[in-house]
Amino acid sequence: MNIDMAERKSNARLKEQIDENLKRVYEEALNEEIPDRFKQLLAQLKAKEGDK
Q1: CA distance 32 to 26
Q2: How many domains does the chain fold into?
């Protein structure tokens, strides 16, 4: 029974670490600069929308 309880705590801690890492990576991705090429493509799309 103690092994089961210890395993549950270990699994819970592992899930916590995974959650924390995923949140950190997501936050970092949100704060990344948009590449210039992507900005250019967006500008081209907006310009074509304006032509309609």
Answers
A1: 10
A2: 1
The position carrying tokens 């090429």 is 37
- DSSP string for the chain: -HHHHHHHHHHHHHHHHHHHHHHHHHHHHHTSPPPHHHHHHHHHHHHHHHH-
Over the stretch 5-52, which tens digit does the pLDDT of each residue have?
Answer: 889 999 999 999 999 999 999 999 999 999 999 999 999 999 998 876
**Other Cβ atoms closer than 10 A to 36:** 8
Residue 36: CA count within 13 A, CB half-sphere: 0
Which residues span the domain enclosing 13? 2-51
